[in-house]
Amino acid sequence: MEKQQIKQAVEGILFTMGKAVEIDQMARALEVEEEDIISAADELSNEYQSNGRGIRIVRFESSYQMCTSKDIYSYLIRIAKQPKKVALTDVLLETLSIVAYRQPVTKAAIEKIRGVSSDHAVNKLVEYELVEEVGRMDAPGRPMLFGTTEQFLRSFGVKSLSDLPSLSPVQVEEFKEEAEREASLEVDV
C-alpha cells in the first residue's frame, strides 16, 4: 500500500469512527506496519496544523483521534448546544488524583488513603468517563480495579500518564505532616 493511500485510509477511519482508534487496529485493518500508521497520522496532523485547518489529529498514547481545533470552539457553541461542563469538586479531584497516580486501584485502597467512603466519588468519575473499571484484583471477593480513561487524558491535556507531574519528596513529606496534623485534630475533638 502506498503512503498516500495509507494517509487517505487513516484520515477516513478517524473521521468515520469519531473516537480514538488504536494504532495496532488500523495497522491490522490496512495490513501495514504500525510505523506506517504513525507516520501517516503524524503527517496528516502536521498538514492540518500548518494549513490552519478546523480539525486536528491528536495522539493519545497508542491511539489517534480526529477532533476540532480549539480555535473554532467559540463558533461551534453558537451552532450546537453548549456542552455540559463537568464540575469536579475537591472530593472528585482528590479521588481522581489517587486513581491517576495509583492505578490500577481498588475502592478500598482509595478509601484507605482518603479516610472516608469513596463510592459516590468513584461512581461520579465513572459517569464523567474519567475513570473506568480496568479489571479485577486476584484476591478474595475479586474487587474491581479502577484506572483513568482516554477522556481523562483529553480533559487534562496530557498525552500519556507519564506526562503527569510528579511530586518532589519535599512535597510528599509536607503532605504527610499536614495529614498527621489533621488526624491529631480529629482525635482531640
Strand content: 5-15%
- Write the H/E string, N to C: HEHHEEHHHHEEHH
Helix proportion range: 55-70%
Based on CA inertia axes, which overall geometry fits?
A: elongated
CATH topology of the largest domain: Arc Repressor Mutant, subunit A
The CATH superfamily of the largest domain bears the name Winged helix-like DNA-binding domain superfamily/Winged helix DNA-binding domain
CATH class of the largest domain: Mainly Alpha
Main-sheet strand order equals 1-3-2
The chain-level mean pLDDT equals: 87
The major beta sheet can be summarized as:
3 strands, antiparallel
Radius of gyration computed on alpha carbons: 21 Å
Question: How would you describe this structure to a colleague?
Answer:
This protein is α+β, with helices and mostly antiparallel strands. The protein folds into two domains: 3-79, Arc Repressor Mutant, subunit A, CATH 1.10.10.10; 90-188, Winged helix-like DNA-binding domain superfamily/Winged helix DNA-binding domain (Arc Repressor Mutant, subunit A). The chain is 55% helix and 13% strand. It is built from nine helices and five strands; from the N terminus they run αβααββααααββαα. It has helices at 3-17, 23-30, 34-50, 73-79, 90-102, 107-114, 119-127, 150-156, 169-188, and strands at residues 21-22, 55-60, 63-68, 131-136, 144-148. The strands form two sheets. It has a three-stranded antiparallel β-sheet with strand order 1-3-2. A hairpin with a 7-residue loop joins β4 (131-136) and β5. α1 packs across α3 (34-50) and α2 packs across α3 (34-50). It is elongated. The mean pLDDT is 87.
